[in-house]
Amino acid sequence: MSKQSIIEVFKSVFSAFIGVQNEENRKKAFENGSLSTYIIAGLIFTALFVITIVILVSSII
Questions:
Q1: Confidence at 2, pLDDT banded by 50, 70, 90
Q2: Domain that holds residue 12
Q3: CB distance 22 to 12 below 8 Å
Q4: Which of 61, 60, 4, 14 is nearest to 36 (CA)?
Q5: Closest alpha carbon to 15 in 28, 6, 25
Q6: Does 19 map to a domain?
Q7: How far apart, in whole angstroms, are the C-alpha atoms of residue 2 and residue 56?
Q8: Alpha-carbon gap, residue 48 to 61, rounded angstroms
Q9: How many domains does the chain have?
Q10: Can you count the helices (H) and strands (E) in the chain?
């Protein structure tokens, strides 16, 4: 079991975030990843998504 790099964690979270993560990658993430790392990455992606939506809506209005 090798620990995943931060790039692999972000790729995995981004794939799951947009809904295209495959079963093999999901299993790899659960076997090799740290829960806290995935929670932090998920929170970062969620914050970036919300900020992007706020900026887009503000620029349209």
A1: low
A2: 6-60
A3: no
A4: 4
A5: 25
A6: yes
A7: 40
A8: 20
A9: 1
A10: 3, 0
Task: For residue 34, tell me if it sits in a domain.
Answer: yes
The SS3 assignment for 22 reads coil
Half-sphere exposure of residue 26: CA atoms within 13 angstroms, side-chain side: 8
Under DSSP, the state recorded for 5 is P
In the numeric block, which tokens belong to residue 48? 């970036």
pLDDT per residue over 25-52, tens digit each? 777 777 777 778 888 888 988 999 999 9
Is 1 part of a structural domain of the chain? no
Instruction: Write the burial class of residue 9 (CB in 10 Å: 0-12 exposed, 13-18 middle, 19+ buried).
Output: buried
Q: Which one-letter amino acid corresponds to residue 55? A: I
